[in-house]
Specification:
With 425 residues, the chain is α/β, with parallel strands linked by helices. It has 13 helices and 21 strands. It has two domains: 247 residues, Ribonuclease Z/Hydroxyacylglutathione hydrolase-like (Metallo-beta-lactamase, Chain A); 166 residues, 3-Layer(aba) Sandwich (Rossmann fold), CATH 3.40.50.360. Helix 6 runs antiparallel to helix 7 and helix 9 crosses helix 13.
Length: 425
């Protein structure tokens, strides 16, 4: 834990703003989150208590194993009978682990969730769901706490379908759930007090928010017009110093850089690995055919270099991808699979995809790659080309024609279509 002065369970509630208390939990020893994220500094599960003249609202809870310290902090700032509202901005287990026990102690509260959150809440509460008061809230809906008001903003897919943000109007305090959060544990809590968390902030964006960039943009469109004095996410430091700078930084992170360079051109990236030069010949032919189209900017990359991470940024902004791989032991080569696996961090839906390659015996690699691209919701309009051993000049012309067709699909010169998965077999 960055602060290091107290064990996590001993941390008292912390005043975030007037009558707003942090009552969350610290998890400094966590080193992996949801399997896919490394958490060198642990994380925090930020929960907040907001007191008004006629009630108290709890904003999110904590992971289940931290229920007891969470409830002790909650009890230090309010009685259970004072709680009128439980706002669940997101229902993943790290936000709702303490919900069943909290509801056992305060069954009278009104639970506020987004339209998509209801089904998740029902799954969480199971047979007890109908015994609670559940209110579905949308952008613009409000909850009164007497002299203070919470306003809701529906912000789906940042990063779950159920996500929303909550705005405390009088304090200009925005509870953003996972948005603008990060996995960084420091008992000092506030961004102007904790250690350097820049890496954690951007790492979190890359792995959590990046696949949902277009939804992040929509969320920012809702948030930016607000007067914001503080941003209180569900993980990591509370952003009380220069909160607007973090919104601006998110705008930079979601901005497409390539568009200003290519104008109205479409972009096609061709990646290949070649064992004996045959797939390489095919790749250059596909490249040459596609490059004949002035409306398409084509790039060619040899994956034999082994390092695939730098290509993910390029792929995110590209309109189409083509993968060339030989078939080795009945499979595509590992480097191609590594690159495809790396695409889980970006939105590939709707991108055009294609595959080609040489083989010696069976040629399974091309349809396997095509099936993977379709599984990633890419559009595969042309059945891939497989050539046994080294291509002849006629076969290379087939590859050039393949490239021309891919370019034509990109520019809309041919009607959009999708090959049937049965054609891949």
């Amino acid at each position: 834990m960055q602060g290091g002065s107290q064990p996590p369970e001993a941390i008292r509630p912390v005043e975030v703003a007037d009558r707003v208390q942090w009552i969350g939990a610290l998890d400094p020893h966590l080193r992996n989150f949801d399997i896919i994220l490394r958490t060198a500094n642990g994380t925090s599960y930020n929960s907040y208590a907001v007191r008004g003249s006629s009630g108290v609202a709890i904003i999110d809870t904590v992971k289940q194993e931290f229920t007891d310290p969470f409830l002790r902090r909650l009890e230090a700032v309010t009685r259970y009978d004072e709680i009128t509202t439980l706002v669940l901005n997101h229902l993943e287990p790290d936000h709702t682990g303490a919900v069943p026990e909290l509801l056992r102690r305060a069954p009278h509260v009104e639970i506020c969730v987004s339209p998509r959150g209801v089904q998740v809440l029902r799954a969480l509460l199971k047979d007890d769901f109908d015994s609670y008061t559940v209110r579905v809230v949308r952008t613009g809906d409000t909850v009164s706490l007497g002299d203070r008001r919470l306003r809701f903003l529906t912000t789906p897919y940042v990063h779950w379908p159920d996500t929303q943000c909550t705005y405390l109007e009088e304090q200009q305090l925005l509870f953003t759930c996972d948005l603008m959060g990060c996995h960084f544990c420091d008992e000092r809590l506030f961004n102007d007090c904790v250690g350097d968390f820049r890496f954690s902030f951007e790492y979190y964006f890359e792995h959590i928010m990046r696949p949902f960039k277009r939804y992040v943009i929509e969320a920012l469109d809702l948030i930016e017009p607000l007067d914001i004095a503080m941003i209180a996410p569900s993980h990591g430091p509370i952003l009380r110093s220069h909160p607007r700078e973090y919104i601006t930084h998110y705008r930079r992170l979601v901005k497409t850089r390539l568009a200003s360079e290519v104008g109205n051109q479409k972009t096609l990236l061709i990646f290949y690995v070649s064992a004996y030069g045959a797939t390489s010949q095919m790749a250059y032919a596909v490249y040459a055919g596609a490059a004949e189209n002035p409306g398409v900017r084509v790039s060619l990359f040899d994956l034999q270099v082994g390092e695939v991470t730098p290509f993910v940024d390029l792929i995110e902004e590209a309109d189409a991808l083509a993968f060339g791989t030989p078939t080795i032991n009945g499979d595509a080569v590992k480097t191609v699979w590594d690159l495809l696996a790396g695409l889980v961090d970006i939105d590939t839906k709707g991108k055009l995809g294609a595959a080609f390659g040489s083989y010696g015996w069976t040629g399974e690699a091309v349809p396997m790659v095509e099936a993977r691209m379709q599984g990633m919701k890419m559009r595969v309009p042309e059945k891939g080309i497989k050539i046994k051993l080294h291509p002849t000049e006629d076969e290379l012309e087939d590859c050039r024609a393949f490239g021309r067709r891919l370019a034509a699909h990109l520019t809309g010169e041919v009607a959009a279509r999708e090959i049937d998965i049965s054609d891949l077999l």
